[in-house]
Prior knowledge:
Belongs to the MlaA family. By secondary structure, the chain is mainly α.
Amino acid sequence: MRRIAPILVLLLAACAQQGDGRQVVASSGRTATDVTGTAPPVTVTAPTDPTDPYEATNRRVLDFNFAVDDVAIRPAAVFYRNSVGNWTRTRIRNVLNNLNEPAVAANSLLQGRPLESAQTVLRFVFNSTAGLGGMFDLAQIGGPPRLERDFGQTLHAWGLPDGPYLMVPVLGPSNPRELTGSVVNGFMNPLSYVIPFGANIGRGAVGGLDTREQNIETLDEIRNGSLDSYARLRSLWQQHRNAELGRTSANSIEVLDDPGAN
């Protein structure tokens, strides 16, 4: 149930992690010890995007998420970065990704991609054995590459529409389809029923913390360098998710575009 972990209180945990923990926005170059600032408040009386009819409420939720992040999540991510070396963080990230592979395989099958499902099963077997429990990703030496498949994508493949954009407390950016997919995806992984409940909670927390650590500078840059950080985050999440759904090319994402400047 990695994708609904409490540590994902802020935004790009949903973006970066449709599971892989990658940075999806160019860094501003600030160090991890910089103090996050806040952009001037933006007053909205009507939705600025037709896909976001609940914008006024969503903005208030974002303010709450930012407040929680400032108090708890960002400091924890900075501590994690400063106390755990990059090599060790990479091994942890690889293990977490490996534990999610059964859910990826199941979603590939549900999306009518049996060859991709078989590829992911082989990848899980290789990385779990020769990769020492997933600590080492054998794709770097010719093993099966990692795929990104989740139940939100499955629902999209089945024709379920997006629905309105939502800023969810704790979970961050979403919409009704993706929120449903996030919940169901956590129950699809058979390993979740084998691993003790406490270990599952810990797995989700560490995964969210790792994602937040990778995006310390990127979120700082969005908050400090945007005229409207809400609009910029909404645009980033929508672009990133559209790329994952195959609607656009990942290379076409304008991650530094600031809608508030228009």
